[in-house]
């Protein structure tokens, strides 16, 4: 196991997302979501690494066209049908839609999400959103109703889920702001950390001869 | 260069004194003209140490005759014991490089919460000596490493061993015994997050842990030299206190530091608004006490010497410093002819140099802030900002468009059909794992650029906004145009934190990264910037700062624009 600081976890997650082709905004959100998710679900980072590894053959980072049949708007209701590999991109849409009602005093906005897979990182995104907007998010499904953090805690360590489920997600005002940079650290298994590092490395640019020569410090004499 | 005619006091008083707007302050050229000031992080730390009369002691030491081994220095601050664990070892000349790719150093350090026992010292040795390759726990607050200035270190050791002080010119010209090549904080490699320690009042202002580490490394460098001298000779003497005070810690700073100012808009806003608020408070001082007048006069004399001692090889900096010296002399001559106005004297001073170079204007900011301690020192607790940018998705497109027009007009006016306006791109190097700047049309990697091409994002956003109803909420807009989400969050953040955005094109061929470096280093408290190109600079940290003996005596924090000390009395530079 590797013990990471939360700031280190944030940046590693963020860079891993960038390395997988996600946009900077999704990478930022996912970094914060991971800090939150790891507090509730110690295997969240490992699950994300496995998720990214599993779906790397898919175009997970590609935005879903808004005119798709899988994204529809009916008044204040946003209906989404998401494939498992799209959950991070859809996560941003869900959070943005829910946040409308908390910020502008608008009537409650809800999301109906049909998906076969609810990754822990999406729940982290939801908790991060409710924290930022002082709200409280609930997910209703299969005659159950749970807060996002409860669901995250209840999630199996493997992260595996089987049933296709429709979730009704809504945010009510009045939640307490959670500290997302709480004191602490998190243990991540070596495989998960190595995978995230590998993805992060893809966000870097190889040096060329030209860049080496023009780099800061080039030509420095160090033995003065 | 223009020195304006002194204004009559009444005219100055009637003039509305307001804070300088972000559009004026947040320009690259101005940021690249900043000087250290009273609210710089080193200064805040030193005031705290002096107020507490903190004592620094050697709590553990195991060095051989060459100074290799470990030394632990412990200081009390804020009711805590904080220790610097320093490991030193022999290093071949070919292994001595200040670049971040180095894997060996003359000395490596960690700052430890508490006083480490021998087991901890032994356990950390294998990690700290390898720096990035090690793993750490959250009692480690900071990591660093340093290389000796080989010639000066050897000379100082030899001189002290011979019972004499080092050569004055050699010591003053170099100014440090060691150069740090990196200082890592805030959770890197498993060390403590800032949040772990930010709850302590003493570490609430930014970078206090990192500054404390460098301060203790400075003391270590002198103690190490003195130790080596005593191992060579029973007649060895201690380093003169004036020299000890003048010696700082060298540092080479490159592009790695530059993106910080772009990536932390909320924090940068706080730094800037605090500095500007301090300036405004000074300018609105109706009168000065006799003591303040005296402080100002003393400071001007010291600054003149400091400027004359600021000698670098860089042609552009030399040219600028030459202009600055002339403008400063003109300002002094003006004061001799016409003293400052009795009412609003500092506004008078500030107006006199309003037509001068940005270097002179920003130098004056540092000088004015220095003499109004009571008015500005309390602002040090406003320098932090833990707010994280967030999206207001209920905002209407039309409202966002208004923000763009208000805060990003500068970007709208840049014509991207001209290649020079996007000639560069920022990226993270796979080799160095550090930010770098590449040429967009000549080098690979622009597809992985850091999100600093603000101009392009703004132009794309404006085009997309024109395609929708202005009444649309942003959550809806971003479903159709998700690529704008990042810049929308930034625009909304800057609408609250106006000084968080640099109002210049960071990817233009004219962008000089060194301006970003100098801005950040000035907030650290570094001076005598010594640019080696437009993308890295050498500086000296803590030069002229109080030494532990001064601090224990509760000295004043009075070392802005330090000057070289006189040779000690009875100074002998050559062996008898």
Stretches of chain B where pLDDT is under 50 for at least 5 consecutive residues are: 1-6
The overall number of domains of chain B is 3
> Termini separation of chain B (Å)?
51 Å
Mean pLDDT of chain A: 85
Q: Give the uncertain stretches of chain A in residue-range form.
A: none
Structural class of chain A: alpha+beta
Tally of helical segments of chain B: 24
Q: What value does the Rg of chain A take, in angstroms?
A: 19 Å
Helix content of chain A: 40-55%
How is the biggest beta sheet of chain B arranged? 9 strands, mixed
Strands across the major sheet of chain B, in which order? 1-2-3-4-5-6-7-11-10
Distance between the termini of chain A: 42 Å
Search tags:
heterodimer, A: 224 residues, alpha+beta, 6-stranded mixed sheet, two-stranded antiparallel ribbon, 8 helices, 8 strands, B: 576 residues, 3 domains, 9-stranded mixed sheet, two-stranded antiparallel sheet, 24 helices, 11 strands, 43% helix
In short, what is this structure?
Chain A is an alpha+beta fold and 224 residues long. Chain A is built from eight helices and eight strands, in the order βαααββαβαββαββαα.
């Amino acid at each position: 196991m590797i013990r990471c600081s939360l700031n280190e976890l944030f940046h590693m997650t963020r860079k891993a997302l960038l390395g997988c082709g996600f946009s900077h905004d999704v990478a930022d959100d996912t970094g914060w979501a991971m800090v939150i998710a790891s507090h509730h679900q110690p295997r969240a980072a490992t699950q994300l690494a496995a998720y990214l590894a599993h779906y790397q053959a898919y175009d997970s980072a590609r935005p879903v066209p808004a005119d798709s049949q899988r994204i529809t708007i009916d008044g204040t209701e946003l209906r989404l049908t998401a494939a498992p590999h799209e959950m991070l991109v859809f996560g941003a849409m869900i959070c943005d839609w829910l946040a409308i009602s908390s910020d502008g005093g608008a009537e409650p906005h809800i999301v109906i999400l049909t998906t076969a897979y609810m990754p822990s990182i999406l729940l982290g995104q939801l908790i991060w959103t409710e924290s930022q907007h002082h709200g409280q998010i609930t997910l209703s499904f299969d005659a159950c109703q749970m807060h996002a953090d409860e669901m995250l805690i209840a999630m199996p360590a493997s992260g595996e889920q089987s049933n296709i489920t429709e979730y009704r997600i809504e945010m009510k005002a009045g939640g307490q702001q959670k500290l997302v940079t709480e004191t602490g650290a998190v243990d991540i298994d070596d495989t998960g950390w190595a995978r995230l590092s590998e993805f992060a490395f893809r966000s870097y640019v190889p040096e060329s001869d030209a860049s080496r020569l023009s780099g800061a410090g080039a030509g420095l004499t160090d033995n003065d | 260069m223009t020195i304006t005619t002194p204004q009559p006091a009444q005219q100055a008083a009637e003039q509305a004194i307001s804070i300088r707007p972000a559009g004026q302050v947040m320009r690259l050229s101005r940021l690249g003209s900043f000087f250290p000031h009273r609210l710089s992080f080193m200064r805040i730390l030193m005031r705290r140490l002096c107020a507490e009369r903190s004592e620094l002691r050697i709590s553990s030491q195991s060095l051989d005759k060459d100074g290799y081994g470990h030394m632990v220095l412990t200081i009390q601050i804020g009711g805590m014991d904080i220790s610097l664990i320093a490991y030193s070892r022999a290093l071949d000349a070919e292994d001595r490089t200040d670049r971040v790719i180095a894997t060996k150093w003359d000395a490596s350090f960690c700052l430890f919460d508490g006083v480490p026992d021998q087991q901890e010292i032994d356990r950390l040795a294998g990690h700290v000596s390898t720096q990035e390759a090690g793993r750490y726990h959250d009692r480690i607050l900071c990591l660093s490493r340093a290389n000796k200035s080989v010639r000066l270190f050897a000379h100082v050791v030899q001189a002290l061993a011979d019972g004499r002080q080092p050569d004055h010119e050699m010591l003053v010209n170099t100014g440090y015994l060691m150069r740090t090549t990196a200082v890592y904080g805030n959770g890197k490699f498993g060390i403590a997050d800032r949040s772990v320690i930010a709850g302590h009042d003493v570490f609430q202002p930014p970078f206090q842990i990192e500054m404390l580490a460098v301060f203790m490394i400075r003391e270590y460098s002198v103690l190490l030299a003195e130790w080596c001298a005593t191992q060579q000779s029973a007649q060895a003497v201690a380093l003169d206190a004036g020299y000890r005070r003048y010696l700082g810690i060298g540092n080479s700073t490159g592009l790695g530091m530059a993106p910080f100012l772009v990536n932390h808009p909320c924090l940068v806003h706080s730094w800037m608004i605090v500095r500007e608020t301090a300036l405004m408070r000074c300018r609105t001082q109706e009168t000065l006490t006799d003591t303040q007048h005296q402080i100002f006069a003393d400071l001007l004399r010291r600054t003149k010497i400091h400027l004359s001692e600021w000698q670098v090889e860089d042609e552009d900096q030399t040219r600028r410093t030459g202009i600055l010296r002339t403008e400063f002399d003109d300002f002094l001559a003006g004061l001799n002819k016409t003293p400052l106005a009795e009412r609003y004297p500092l506004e008078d001073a500030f107006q006199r140099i309003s037509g001068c170079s940005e270097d002179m204007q920003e130098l004056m900011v540092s000088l004015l802030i220095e003499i109004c301690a009571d008015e500005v020192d309390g602002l040090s607790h406003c320098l932090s900002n833990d707010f994280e940018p967030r999206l207001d998705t209920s905002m209407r497109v039309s409202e966002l468009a208004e923000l763009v027009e208000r805060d990003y007009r500068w970007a709208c006016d840049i014509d991207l059909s001209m290649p020079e306006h996007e000639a560069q791109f920022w990226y993270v190097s796979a080799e160095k794992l550090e930010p770098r700047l590449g040429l967009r049309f000549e080098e690979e990697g622009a597809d992985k650029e850091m999100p600093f091409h603000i101009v392009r994002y703004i132009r794309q956003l404006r085009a997309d906004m024109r395609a929708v109803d202005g009444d649309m909420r942003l959550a809806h807009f971003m479903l159709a145009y998700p690529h704008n989400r990042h810049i929308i969050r930034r625009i909304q953040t800057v609408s609250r934190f106006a000084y968080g955005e640099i109002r210049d094109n960071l990817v233009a061929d004219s962008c000089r990264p060194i301006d970003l470096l100098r801005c950040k280093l000035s907030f650290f408290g570094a001076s005598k910037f010594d640019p080696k190109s437009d993308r890295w600079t050498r500086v000296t940290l803590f030069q002229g700062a109080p030494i532990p003996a001064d601090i224990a005596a509760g000295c004043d924090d009075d070392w802005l624009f330090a000057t070289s000390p006189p040779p000690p009395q009875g100074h002998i530079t050559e062996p008898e």
